[in-house]
Amino acid sequence: MEIDSGSSHFTDFRSSDTNPNSGGCMNPMVVNAFPVGIVHVISSGGNVEGEGGLRMEPSVGLEFDSADEAREFYGLYAMRVGFKIRTGQLYRSRRDGSVSSRRFVCSKEGFQLNSRTGCPAFIRVQRRDSGKWAIDQIQKDHNHELGLEGESSSPVMQQGPPVVTKSLVEVLRRPKVKLLGQIDNGVLSPSGIINFKKQKQGGDGRQSTAEPYTGLEFNTANEAYEYYQVYAESVGFRVRIGQLFRSKNDGSITSRRFVCSKEGFQHPSRVGCGAFMRIKRKDSGSWMVDRLNKEHNHDLEVQMECQKKFSTASKKFIEEETNGMVSMELGETNNSKITKRSRENKIGTDWYPKLLEYFQTKQAEDTGFFYSVEVDNGSCRSVFWADGRSRYSCSQFGDVIILDTSYRKSNYEVPFATFVGVNHHKQPVLLGSALIANESKECFTWLFQTWFKAMSWCRPKSIIADQDMAIQQAITEVFPGTHHRFSSWQIRAKERENLRSMPIEFRYEYEKCIYESQTTVEFNTTWNSLINKYSLKGNAWLQHMYDKRESWVPLYLRGKFFAGIPIGESVESFFGTQVNGQTPVREFIPRYEQGLEQRREEERKEDFNSFNLQSFSQTKEAIEEQCKRLYTFTIFKIFQDELLQSYSYIGIKTYEEGTICRYLVRRSGSENDKHAVTFSAVNLSVNCSCQMFEFEGILCRHVLKVFKLLNIRELPSQYILPRWLRNAEYRILCGAESGVSSQELKAFMVWSLRETACKYVECGTTSVEKYKLAYEVMREGGKKLY
Description:
Low-confidence stretches: 1-54, 148-208, 303-316, 318-344, 732-738
Number of strands: 28
Shape: globular
Mean pLDDT: 77
Strand content: 15-25%
Number of helices: 20
Oligomer: single chain
Largest sheet: 8 strands, mixed
Strand order of the largest sheet: 4-5-6-7-3-1-2-8
Radius of gyration: 30 Å
């Protein structure tokens, strides 16, 4: 589940059926990228002026061979105008999971960082049936000042005659990293391998570290990393773990890169620094520096203090080198030797006193507030809490939960995790919060058991969480039968790490196997062919991912209910950047309350709109009017889109026996977009091969087409999920008939009545008049109960 800050709704991933030819450009241009670093522009008779005149600007209808070429083009345009770009939201086809459109946005889009201003500038490219990508949406206006256009950063348009059919645009590319082959004088042990004990202290008390050079050897990759850390501290920069390469034969690591922390441009603090050290494993088992660049493009911190702790990346590196068998945190460096110690748990000393005061205050205000503390030998370890509203929300929307442990992406100060659900407006809703002592199976088992107890034993159908073995084992133990889907951000990170050294052809075939396989037989055949073609039978990571395919491959997930949470995309963090792994103790509770209230205010607005505003009907069909009355705004819009799209499909009966009929439903004019729909007249049951209802709980366009052919004018009750209704809080009336357990039924009744009573109390205490009215209503209602 890559969780990222973004919109307040979970993005739908169904394919867009916008007409690609409806753009406003009468004569679209096609931009092709060539390996030699030149963009070849084919214009339908346009004028190309010199460098001082007009230059290419993005416009609706402009075509590209690939989405990457579109991004490169927009990047050149941005460079000329004076802003930077980021890759924004993407949409995948519901049919095959392939990317159908992409957004490229100004780097100041959104508000997740202080440097961002919510800039609306963007382009969106959509894949056409021809395979080309065309701009279908564009916004050029920015809400911030643009940088001045420099000569060196401007793409140069070659001059030519007034009317041309071909022109060349020089593409500016980032300069290649220089490789240094020089050898500096350093302190070596007789064997030629660095010996940390022989390094001396400088006059200022710092270690006088030997300068790195190509040919320098180390006993282990860990020693090389430790050495580069100490060298970086003495020079005045910090280190991150960069790219690694694995053997195609056995999957073992053959080389590693350690880079300056300012390498790349993924964060505003990074400036694309080219300094790095690469080590390569020799046949003898030792490691040797084979590539090196000591030049930085930024100021160095000469007086930089030695870091007392290594980063989370350091811990990950040590675990990787020891095959994950050591659960340690790196401590202080002493004469360049790593001191290993158990993770220091500061929850009890730094956090619990503040949290306990907060918990006691909340319990006085909210009788439904729950908290629990894991204690070991008198010491506070993990902490879990949930207020009455979260516990009530779980009785409504606890069928699908996300365990957000994205704090582990960075060097965190607080291991803050959240349980998040999806409400009837497709907004994230909080179902509990926790501080996690460590990442052991015992810790996660305690966490899941505590959450289960707090939520009145309501068992989720599906859970999205990281793929760590400890989490997998805990889910299996506490929630047997619950389907565990791996977090997308972790899958993507592992793919980048393990497949980076593979050729481009492999990555293409790999993506095609994952996202375009329509049956399990097709997937297994394609996967095995891929493994054999590239001689990867011994690759341990790929074998592990194949064994766990039901937890991450879209083909296997589409038949499970996930409330429509997109597959393969990062899911938004509930608190965004307000509360994260770096939030200090003194700011945690105010930020937590502010973020929670902001989310609940958004939910209240959607509730108000759903009850007080009317959606616009597009077909006037009875089935549309039925769903307009029942569904929330957000869900009705999804249903309405499916209904409208059904008019573009053709249904053909291919089989009939007794009460069972089978239809082939395909899009008019397309042979690829087709699905099989099976219908039973006994109980009006239906299923489609696209499995949209199973995954999202909303009927697809293919089923709606068959209903129209059969003159079924209203949706059968079993295909209207109570969780998507406007009055989802009263879903108990439907739930009693849908086979829910008596325990779940009782839990819902308790929290539904509690929540309703709380609303009476809140409203009735605002004035004496309202108190009298609320008291009278409750008293009269009470007479009917006894």
